[in-house]
Amino acid sequence: MNFSKEEIRHSMLLYAITDRTWLKEGETLTSICEDVLKHGATFLQIREKDLEPSAFQKEALELKALCAKYQVPFVVNDSVEIALAIDADGVHVGQGDIQGKNLRALIGKDKILGISAATVAEAVAAQAAGADYIGVGAVFGTSTKKNARNLSVEKLREICAAVTIPVVAIGGIHALNLRKLSGSQVDGVAVISAIFSSDNPGKATSDLLSLARQLVQPTPRLMRTALSIAGSDCSGGAGIQADLKTMTMNGVYAMSAITALTAQNTTKVEKIVETSPDFLKSQLDMIFTDIFPDAVKIGMLPNARLIEVLAERLRFYQAKHIVLDPVMVATSGSILMETSAVLTLKKELLPLAELVTPNIPEAEILSERKITTPEEIEAAAEFIGKTYHCAVLIKGGHSVNTANDLLWADGQMEWFYGRCIPNPNTHGTGCTLSSAIAANLAKGYSLSTSVQRAKKYLSGALSAMLDLGAGSGPMNHAFCLTGEFS
Ligand SMILES: Nc1ncnc2c1ncn2[C@@H]1O[C@H](COP(=O)(O)OP(=O)(O)OP(=O)(O)O)[C@@H](O)[C@H]1O
Ligand SMILES: Cc1ncc(CO)c(N)n1
Ligand SMILES: [Mg+2]
């Protein structure tokens, strides 16, 4: 697997390093690691000092497959040979292993190279040697590594400031001392015994993960921003309201430019008041000249005049990462866009979009054909992508009772197979998916990873089984919050 720089930075959050010595009767390294990955570890390194090479390689191969399943980077400690032999995502080495070698050349440009460092000079040298991240420690006393020096938070901060690559803190970190690293600017924490010596490694992982999240909260300067240009749904489940909730829950600062006010609920759309083109333009000017969005999601656009103004402003500001959800009909069956506006949408907006996300009926309109089979979905996506020079995600979804979506991007097809959640309350699924994709693009994830992460968020929101209103009700966008603050 290939990971972008941004993905590698995020993956530092909770960096797990294996230690078989704590395994109990009946457990295997793979079974424990699966538990750890299931509970949210964001990176895995195999480090088994006492295994001879062939046994090490065997364990590493199993863990590699496991990490691929969870889309988590997997690196091998110390051995470049084994990392290359099993085609791991990369290798992690110490200062002793890098002297006089060009490791970057040895492993190739696509592999992740992690280097341990304990001083500013070592960190800077590691970056110059082509490291993708550095592990800095030991920050606390550790039983795993004898004679390791302890670093102060100030020293850690100095090291973080001296390099541009991500930094993960290591050495004796556990749930009770992790908070002491606050203010150090690290991108995450690496742990061995805090997970592997625990009676319940899964629970230890989720506890450490939430502590790591608090530690690595985005500083205001690093906060990514996203804009939803869409219609208001007064019932809160779709449109602007769904978009703001989704973007917020996906960790970006959310803004809105409203194209229409709808009076709707879970059963129907009663009235629509369209925004004037001039007022849409003013909203866009206020936003783009002040807090420039890192990504833009576009939803309901009731008429051609609004589409024209929007396209002109997006071109003028050279907006980035535009996700276009070509909303034509609401879940409840009501028309949300004038039929005559479709031509303008195709001509003006599709070519500006990085991604367009039609459901099947919308894909039929955009590709001017009937779609009934998976092959026809593929052909329609290819047609739309090639005609309008954008990526296309065709959603099987509540209209066809599957959760399989097809991504066509740059001539490549990728199916995302989702578990169909038996929840009839799907009001706003399309809005939520496109906003979650935009939020993830804003954070720097690749298109494919953004789709993957957005589907995962949507599944969580659907699985919460909220049941409000008489019709197809909204989802629980805040399914992963407890609502308690302390
Ligand atoms: N019951 C379900 N279980 C899991 N995923 C679902 C379910 N229903 C929809 N999805 C997913 O939701 C996403 C949105 O697809 P959908 O076809 O519902 O969009 P839409 O028709 O544009 O929605 P909207 O009516 O909100 O505009 C897709 O990723 C789809 O796979
Ligand atoms: C405002 C608005 N946008 C989009 C949808 C699509 O579900 C909706 N129902 N309402
Ligand atoms: Mg939709």
UniProtKB/TrEMBL annotation:
Pathway: Cofactor biosynthesis; thiamine diphosphate biosynthesis; 4-amino-2-methyl-5-diphosphomethylpyrimidine from 5-amino-1-(5-phospho-D-ribosyl)imidazole: step 3/3; Cofactor biosynthesis; thiamine diphosphate biosynthesis; thiamine phosphate from 4-amino-2-methyl-5-diphosphomethylpyrimidine and 4-methyl-5-(2-phosphoethyl)-thiazole: step 1/1; Cofactor biosynthesis; thiamine diphosphate biosynthesis; 4-amino-2-methyl-5-diphosphomethylpyrimidine from 5-amino-1-(5-phospho-D-ribosyl)imidazole: step 2/3. SUPFAM superfamilies: Ribokinase-like, Thiamin phosphate synthase. Its EC number is 2.5.1.3. Residues 233-476 form the Pyridoxamine kinase/Phosphomethylpyrimidine kinase domain. 2-[(2R,5Z)-2-carboxy-4-methylthiazol-5(2H)-ylidene]ethyl phosphate binds at T142, S143, T144, G172, I192, S193. Belongs to the thiamine-phosphate synthase family. GO terms for molecular function: ATP binding; hydroxymethylpyrimidine kinase activity; magnesium ion binding; phosphomethylpyrimidine kinase activity; thiamine-phosphate diphosphorylase activity. Residues 14-195 form the Thiamine phosphate synthase/TenI domain. The keyword Acetylation does not apply. This is Thiamine-phosphate synthase. The gene is thiE.
